[in-house]
Amino acid sequence: MAQVHKGWHTADLSNAGDEIVLFLIGMRINNRGNHPMVACLHRHGRMLSYLQQHPEKGLLGYRLGLLPTPVVIQYWRSFADLERFARDRDPHLESWRKFNRSVGESGDAGIWHETYRVPTASIDTIYGNMPATWLGAAVGLVPVARAGDTAAARLGVRDNEESIVPVT
Questions:
Q1: How far is CA 27 from CA 15, 18, 30, in A?
Q2: Which pTM value belongs to this model?
Q3: Strand boundaries in 12-139, DSSP class E
Q4: How open is the CA angle 86-87-89, to the nearest 5 degrees?
Q5: In contact, 134 and 116? CB cutoff 8 Å
């Protein structure tokens, strides 16, 4: 069972630089009789394992989810790191080419992705009595300070103000 961090914590962005890149990638099977996505999922899993073994590539962390379709939520150190990986022959570019050869324009399966460059000054996170998860799992957690413990204060929208929830 994951370690619960008691009390209120926030993602530790102190070493994150000026931005974090949020990259969402998902897929959808449109023709249930054809399953090219099984191979695609396997290749994607290999890419994520590769990235975990090579932190210098810039992936900070990721989460898997099932929204209406399977999705991988990735946190990257920079857009330059993400783009460099996208153009890397092995393992990404070759996997992308295999997917295109197997599915092409058949319509049997679809993929999508969205990329967001988020200035770290515009990021606010809060985790109460939670294990490290989402962005907090990618960059680590730090306790929320007593002063300025509101989202508005942490984002610099307003000066320090008293929280509506007591922080211990």
A1: 32, 30, 10
A2: 0.79
A3: 19-29, 59-66, 70-76, 109-119, 127-130
A4: 105
A5: no
Distance between CA atoms of 41 and 72, rounded to whole angstroms? 11
Euclidean distance between CA atoms 102 and 89, whole angstroms = 18
Handedness of CA 113, 127, 155, 55 (dihedral sign): negative
pLDDT of residue 115 exceeding 70, the answer is: yes
Condensed to tens digits (0 to 9), the pLDDT of residues 15-64 reads 888 999 999 988 877 777 655 556 666 666 778 888 889 999 999 999 88
Residues listed for the chain: 168
Between 75 and 158, name the one with better pLDDT.
75
Strand-pairing partners, residue 10, are 142
Percentage of the chain modeled with pLDDT above 70: 77
Indicate whether 137 pLDDT > 60: yes
The strand pair at 19-29 and 109-119 is best described as antiparallel
How buried is 100 (Cβ within 10 angstroms: 0-12 exposed, 13-18 middle, 19+ buried)?
exposed
* Single-letter residue type at 21: V
CA proximity to 137, closest of 1, 43, 45, 2: 2
